[in-house]
Amino acid sequence: MTTLVWGAGAIGGTIGAYAHRAGHDVTLVDVEASHVDAVRRSGLTIEGPVDTFTVSVPAYEPHELSGRYDAVLLCTKAQHTPQALDAIEAVLAPSGYVASFQNGLNEWTVRDRVGPDRTIGAFVNFGADYLGPGRIHFGGRGTVTIGELDGRTSDRLVSLHALVRAFDPATRITDNVWGYLWGKMGYGAMLFASALTNESIADVLDARDVRPILDALAAEVLQVAQVEGVIPFGFNGFDPVAFGPAGNAAMRAASYDAMVAHNRGSAKTHSGVWRDLAVRKRRTEIDAQFGPIVARAQAAGRATPTLARLIDVVHDVEEGRRPQAWDTLHAVADVPEVA
Known about the structure:
Layout: E1 2-6, H1 10-21, E2 25-29, H2 33-42, E3 44-47, E4 53-55, E5 59-60, E6 69-74, H3 81-88, E7 92-100, H4 107-114, E8 119-124, E9 127-132, E10 135-140, E11 144-148, H5 155-165, E12 172-173, H6 177-194, H7 201-205, H8 211-227, H9 249-264, H10 272-278, H11 286-299, H12 305-318, H13 326-330
């Protein structure tokens, strides 16, 4: 199986490096010319408390690619999905597929472009950061799950499972990948909120005074999942039941404790969203990840005022109107009253 990893940053670079080291036929693609050049000259280095090694792996910019590939692991930021698919369609084998290893519900976009029978979903929650050209920090393991959109177990899914297990032997196949993806969105809303401060993920989750905001964000996402007919799954301490209609204060407190413990055990202290805002000074994935959820809520007549407010406040930080600070996170609670 020839595999193209599209986006060789934190997620794609880490999975691709492990898979190539294990003997899989992997090629990396990235739009950052300096990153591609560094990988060609000195290899791709994975470093951190989990592992440290360097692999010599083929790497290209999109315009340099030729041939056809059986599998494409799409690992770009969510907002770059449409442009990536424009290029991927030219190199995807007629019987090939695209597996989205991204944050967000990008399977919708991939499915609509290449077809549901050529789309595989993936949920990832491990900690990694792009440090610079040719270097990725692997900070800690987390749940990794893959699944066909219709829940079946296909031969190609089994083959992909073998490749991803080279990265994490605990990777699982699921018959409900949408459940994991929606669960991640509930937790992901909390991560976006944490990035409005300069504190660590664990410290924000451990701060009692902001928990009502985090509760509201998760609950609004999960209510849209319910509208979609999806039962969200929990992972790494996040318990979607605790933040849904059947949850209570004790269940949420237990979930927060578990999430804090998981995050304190990772060398990745801050989210990729925080790195986008504080380090790389670029726009985040907030619109691409949560805009479609707000739109679907509106179409179903459901209110998501806290989520909509989060999007606005993240834009404020992106555009320099607010600093990353506790007061900025508290501003998410300033939801306009409905007339």
